[in-house]
PLP-dependent aminotransferase family protein (Massilia forsythiae), 794 residues
Amino acid sequence: MKIEDPHALHLPLSERAKNMKSSAIRDLLKVTARPEIISFAGGLPSPDTFPIARLKDAFDRVLSAQGKVALQYGPTDGYAPLREWIADRMSTDGVRIGPEQVTIVSGSQQGLDLLSKVLIDKGSKVLVETPTYLGALQAFSMYEPDLQSVESDDIGLVPETVARIGQGARLLYAPPNFQNPTGRTLPLSRRRELVAICARMNVPIIEDDPYGELSYGGERLQKMLTMNSAGVVHMGSFSKILTPGIRLGYVIAPPALSRMLEKAKQATDLHTSQLTQMVVYEALKDGFLDQHIPVIRRLYAEQCETMLAAMQDFFPPALKWTRPDGGMFIWVTLPRHIDSQQLFEESVAQDVAFVPGTPFYPANLATNTLRLSFVTVPRPRIREGIERLGKLIASKL
Amino acid sequence: MKIEDPHALHLPLSERAKNMKSSAIRDLLKVTARPEIISFAGGLPSPDTFPIARLKDAFDRVLSAQGKVALQYGPTDGYAPLREWIADRMSTDGVRIGPEQVTIVSGSQQGLDLLSKVLIDKGSKVLVETPTYLGALQAFSMYEPDLQSVESDDIGLVPETVARIGQGARLLYAPPNFQNPTGRTLPLSRRRELVAICARMNVPIIEDDPYGELSYGGERLQKMLTMNSAGVVHMGSFSKILTPGIRLGYVIAPPALSRMLEKAKQATDLHTSQLTQMVVYEALKDGFLDQHIPVIRRLYAEQCETMLAAMQDFFPPALKWTRPDGGMFIWVTLPRHIDSQQLFEESVAQDVAFVPGTPFYPANLATNTLRLSFVTVPRPRIREGIERLGKLIASKL
């Protein structure tokens, strides 16, 4: 038997495969998994928030009472009671969302893949903010679009730029709350402007919102979905409020678009685990999230506060950083002459890790930015890591 | 709030979306779900074979002992112990398969999607047998290939045709055992010929094998994978031997191709449920399948025998049908003048359902074929349904 490299074999690969990049972050997580490293690199939620006992109990109950249904093939658009539960929860601001608008997906990332299948042709114009979620860039890239960066400032997408360059775009990707990687939140006025502009140009907005529930103060800005549910596709996930390991998310879209997502999903993986959907419904139907989410918010708010305080104490004044109102990330802008990739290597040598900013730009624009995550590191270690990183940066000024 | 049709809104859809078809079978299953219907239409395994108690126990153990790991994000290529277990199980005929060749996927259907991402460009030549698995046609179609039908006879793909039309193809799709929809099995000699021909032309063979373990007699023909593991991609699934509702399968490929599948999977859904993988490993690691699979084989063999005996008794001699050595399906060829779609409607009116054959042909060739599944219908009902169907067909001769 010979096992060879497919390139050596001249296996006939697709164009997209030849251009495929692995996630810089997932690769980097392998480097930073050493226990001695203080890692601000992860995008993982805190496992202390996983309701293990409750889920165990729900698996028990579902398998005991409905094992044959839970373990059989299920409907492509999802388990009906869970779809109804999500539709009810998403019906806010006087707008009724129907279960026929809900497609259950195997995590938000799959929502991005299915939306790309339905909306993107090779060469299609696709608008993204800068910087933006790396996973979205990867998902879109599989369908070979013309990715165009929309100018973004401290509070997110600049609506005028969307109006100027958006005509003919297949979609605008717009995560509204505590965005990954910057932690910034799009203000209400900009949401309204973007919804109006995109409706006029007939460009669907993809409102990807995995962090929306993690507002430290509990405030919530109106979703773009409820400003125009015929032109906005909303994506949600159980990864940050329950557990990511089960891969469960959802897409809310106009009914006819939902039917297309259903067909695309049928071709992609038939359906999402029936068992997992039934268990999550079982675990959540009694209002559990109303007690659980505040616990996560409190924990993350304290972790964030600890990191911000340490940055205040230990980071040189030449640095700028965001002060998120929720979520899991702080975004740091270094003086222009410091390359964050280079800094990363020196920092890891001192057992502190973060994510360099360049992968979050579709065209690798800024080399002087980095992302810090604070949710999984014990608080004394946060101070220690930030102090060490601050000293390293100071040595370069 | 207005909810409108995306076409009415002129939402900018992709070309593939405009051409998307829903699975005729999944749509049909909705029609045939009425309890009074004797349905031979499903492709579902028998829920009587699901080891519910064992899985419940495994969920308990994994969540109790390793809850925080099981519920956290996991590696894109899969849970390492499960990958090793699969590699060991796939190492047969003196050929060693390494865990680095194994990618865990969310069901075989996802394997087809990922392989398409990596191998197919718009317009690429893709070879399929006739008739073939509908889900594969759907998965490939998302990437807009030029699907070419390879002549196939009672024992499957005709190697000479592959040699004649295969040059430059991106892949040959070749389910070897008890194929869906026909139940036919590719003989050893043809496997060897196909492997040799495709190696010469540098066309990867996709050996999709969800039914291979369900040989009634327990015999197993050598996998094409072990004839040339550098040129054959093997796909397996837990859907037919454990449970489909959890969505778990795997792809065995040359290591460098596996790395590409990993990148494609990262962009597609990050990873398959970590919890599910750990639970399946927990449930199977002690050799459970060695006791469990023979139980499924015996059940399906008896069900198949019942249906074949009934067909012998009640079907007019003008009909031809396959006699599978394993799996879940029998394929019927009617006299040419009978349209099986038309027959389906009349048959459902008499409370008997099957799947008309046309969707299994990429170019809708034969209108006089149909698929019967026997695994989920109680045996007296099998006889009753076949008798009724036989009379209906006889009335048309």
Remarks:
- Chain A has 13 helices and 15 strands.
- The radius of gyration of chain A is 21 Å.
